[in-house]
Write a structure and sequence with these properties.
By secondary structure, the chain is α/β, with parallel strands linked by helices. Helices cover about 35% and strands about 20% of the residues.
Amino acid sequence: MEALGNVLYKAADAANWTGRIDGEDPASKRWHQIIDLIDLDKELPVMQFKTVLLGFCCDEGVRRNQGRVGAKDAPAAMRKVLANLPDHLFPSFEIADAGDVICVAEDLEAAQQELAKRVQQILEMGGLPIVLGGGHEVTYGHYKGLRLANPSKKIGIINLDAHLDIRPLKDGKGNSGTGFFQIAEESKTEGLEFNYMAIGIQQISNTQALYQYAEEHHVEIVEAYDVHPWELENIQERIQAFADRVDCLYLTIDMDVFAAPYAPGVSALNFNGLVPDATFIRILECILGQANLWTVDIAELNPLYDIDNRTTKLAADLIFRIASNP
């Protein structure tokens, strides 16, 4: 598929996967030594039990939302760190790179459509997509791909984020803050349930109007100040109940859910977000442990503002945990 003479999709490139070599012993290998490279425009292998990375090189939604652009470079930055991760699940671990969806000439809508197509392909071949964003405009395209692959199933979305991202469209166009609004309004039109749980939300980052819209649409909210060890069991029970009432679970992690010392390289910095400690990891593990988890993405990583690769390394750690989940 082409737009203005430029491709919207680029197949995986071996040049993105280089790194340290500790030996050829299978127990010593790293991701760059074991990863499969996929071209989604060619005949596809069966991807059953395979984790499939797909980049979303886009921050047009962030630009429209008046945020800090630079998230389009996040997939390349994440691959650079991921390449050196160790394989802790040999011989059962299978991971592939399916390349990148690219936003061309500020055409966010075409990029989201392309992303939907590629996510659908991966899902229908049995893979677990991990989409490497990109701004949080990734949500709308990612959801559309999941919907195309599962037209009759009930979908639930868990968003780890400081923001609800349910802003109305501006001038009829979406941006990085409108994804869940678009999904909610389309669900209403199509007679579908809107199942949305947001964890890590901060009052300082959301207007009263957004909270009101969330309440009217039965959004489940776990605010950042409620994420504590003494609330862990309650949060896990809420996650379990949410997952139990849907067929397909989609997890999206916006890196600005974390406090600035841990995630300075984001499109919208939060000085006092979540800490990636044991409590957070237990929450993440609860989500990853759901049998109906179908797809995941990482959003809003902005390498341009990162410090010592802190945010990129944190994102890589999350991806490592997701891909290594049995």
